[in-house]
């Protein structure tokens, strides 16, 4: 896994995460990012704006929606 971003998670999630985190490997914990309302700045450190869906503040507008798109290096036609 590269990085996983959880955006605008409810407060309860953050509480549960703080309880679970000590039992996980430190390398895994570093890859999981819990982001609040000001997520765009940190997200853009990892994902180029042209690859970030427009509903998350980027400029990507894939046909049919970025979340359902199969675009990526594995599928150059998408």
Automatic annotation (TrEMBL):
Protein name in the entry: CRAL-TRIO domain-containing protein
Q: Which Pfam families match?
A: CRAL_TRIO
- Indicate the segments forming the CRAL-TRIO domain, all copies: 1-64
Species name for this entry?
Kwoniella shandongensis
């Amino acid at each position: 896994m590269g990085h996983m971003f959880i955006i605008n998670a409810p407060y309860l999630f953050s509480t549960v995460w703080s309880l679970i985190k000590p039992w996980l490997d430190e390398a895994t914990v570093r890859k999981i990012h819990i982001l609040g309302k000001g997520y765009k700045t940190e997200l853009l450190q990892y994902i180029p704006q042209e690859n970030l869906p427009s509903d998350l503040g980027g400029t990507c507008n894939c046909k049919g929606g970025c979340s359902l798109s199969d675009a990526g290096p594995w599928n150059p036609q998408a």
